[in-house]
Specification:
Layout: H1 2-27, E1 29-36, H2 42-50, H3 52-55, E2 58-65, H4 70-77, E3 82-86, H5 89-96, E4 100-105, E5 108-109, E6 117-121, H6 122-126, E7 139-142, H7 148-160, E8 168-171, H8 175-183, E9 189-190, H9 194-202, E10 206-211, E11 218-219, E12 221-226, H10 227-232, H11 234-255, H12 268-279, H13 283-286, H14 301-313, H15 323-326
Parallel strand pairs: 1-2, 1-3, 7-8, 7-9
Antiparallel strand pairs: 3-12, 4-12, 5-11, 6-9, 6-10
Helix pairs in contact: 2-11, 2-12
Length: 338
């Protein structure tokens, strides 16, 4: 009889625990995050792998894309709750109308790290495109009109005193397509993420003209959300950002030294393995270059504002777009000095 009572109690306790777990799972809020398979998106991958979202009562669905402009479009349409991507004219135009907000920094160009690279086709290189000062008059593969590669080229044109207007832009749709266009000699050059051009560089299928991090300090990518979430779901945004910063800290600790230059720490091997699982990039290939991420997700506000003004000057962003409204100061922390 006692055994029967004990068994009944055990069954009750187990059933109660399972019900509690089920209730907890049901209470978790599901969010969808748009990402690229690049190291700049690693904080979200790390957070997913380590269960950080669950700690904030969130269930994250990760949606991967090949083209950066698709992510802001998904956020604007409500198909994505949050996105990590490079920004450009399209984003600033839409955000300038009040539809989207920047809530934190993602990848940036910082000395020693390898985020974006200027590559040249073998044909163009043999024809005289040996350095950045030789860029004038050449064709460039870009993902789409108004993307960050054009801003990079604008800055380089000013620095090396050639006419930006002499460059011919070839929209090809995605980052892998950019590399393929240069490899196939249908475009003279491009500025892709190192993460999608590593194999071409290692196999001498393209030439490396320069690392963007050696040429300028800039904000490559940001964390974004819709104005609706920013205004109506502030606690959801803060919960997501707490998780994002957990992943940021792990990434920063793994790959960054006290001087903010590359340095693999004790957790680097495990972190490489986690990123490789999501990006499907071999670890040894990945080590050719990792983007810099600020440990706290602080935004280079001055550079983002400069990007907006440059696009305006080129007629790609409407004059009324206001950067002070696009950068949501309720959530953004500015990088010191910016």
């Amino acid at each position: 009889m006692r055994l029967c009572i004990a068994l009944c109690r055990a069954v009750f306790v187990i059933g109660f625990a399972l019900a509690a777990l089920a209730a907890s799972a049901a209470a978790a809020e599901t969010i969808k995050i748009g990402l690229l398979k690049v190291s700049a998106c690693a904080p979200v991958m790390i957070a997913q792998d380590k269960g950080y979202f669950a700690k904030e009562g969130l269930t994250a669905e990760l949606a991967f894309f090949d083209a950066p402009p698709v992510i802001p479009q998904g956020v604007m349409a409500g198909d994505l709750d949050f996105g990590l991507a490079a920004v450009g004219a399209g984003f600033f135009n839409t955000a300038g109308q009040g539809a989207m907000r920047i809530i934190a920094a993602d990848g940036d160009e910082s000395p020693g790290f390898r985020g974006l690279v200027v590559i040249a086709s073998n044909q163009a290189y043999d024809g005289g495109l040996k350095s950045l000062k030789d860029l004038a008059g050449h064709s460039f593969a870009i993902t789409a009109a108004g993307t960050i590669q054009q801003y990079d080229l604008g800055v380089l044109a000013d620095k090396y005193h050639f006419a930006y207007s002499s460059l011919r832009m070839l929209p090809v749709g995605s980052l892998p397509n950019m590399v393929a266009a240069v490899m196939g000699n249908s475009a003279d050059a491009a500025i892709p993420a190192v993460s999608v051009s590593r194999q071409a560089l290692a196999g001498a299928k393209v030439h490396n003209l320069a690392w963007i991090s050696d040429e300028m300090r800039m904000q490559i990518a940001v964390v974004m959300t819709s104005a609706r979430h920013a205004d109506q779901d502030p606690e959801l945004v803060r919960r997501f950002l707490r998780v994002y910063r957990m992943g940021l800290k792990d990434y920063h600790d793994a790959f960054t030294g006290p001087d903010e230059r590359p340095l693999d720490g004790p957790t680097a091997p495990a972190t490489y393995a986690t990123i490789a699982k999501y990006t499907e990039v071999p670890i040894e290939t990945m080590k050719i270059g990792l983007v810099h991420l600020d440990a706290e997700g602080r935004l280079n506000v001055a550079d983002v504002m400069h990007q907006i003004e440059w696009y305006k000057a080129e007629g790609m962003v409407k004059p009324e777009a206001d950067g002070t409204k696009i950068i949501d100061k309720r959530y953004v922390t500015a990088l010191p000095g910016t």
